[in-house]
Amino acid sequence: MNAMSAISIRGRMHFMVFTESFDAKVMCRFLDRLVGHFDHKVHLIVDRHSAHRSKTVRAWLADHHDQIELHFPPSYSPELNPTGWSTPT
Question: How far apart (Å, rounded) are the C-alpha atoms in residues 37 and 29?
């Protein structure tokens, strides 16, 4: 079993459980379900997983540009990752 989720700014959780491997097809299915829950444009922050950047997902996003936009954090910025910070001893 696998799961993916998104949390709205109001704290509402949207999730999907799936049995297959995560790929672009699964991502598009999740995005389709996600935009169906909102009557305004969704801004989704995602990591740089290959499925998120695939041609299939980019094509889906082009067809739904008025409903959703993906945002990618910088590929490497340890200063923005608080769990990666070390404290002096």
Answer: 13
Contacts with 59 (C-beta within 8 Å, 6 or more apart), sequence order: none
Give residue for tokens 């740089």: 48
Pairing of strands 42-45, 13-18: unpaired
State pTM to two decimals: 0.81
13 has which bridge partners?
7
Alpha carbons 89 and 85: distance in angstroms, whole number: 13
pLDDT tens digits, 19-34? 999 999 999 999 999 9
Q: Over the stretch 29-86, which tens digit does the pLDDT of each residue have?
A: 999 999 999 999 999 999 989 999 999 999 999 999 999 999 998 877 766 656 655 5
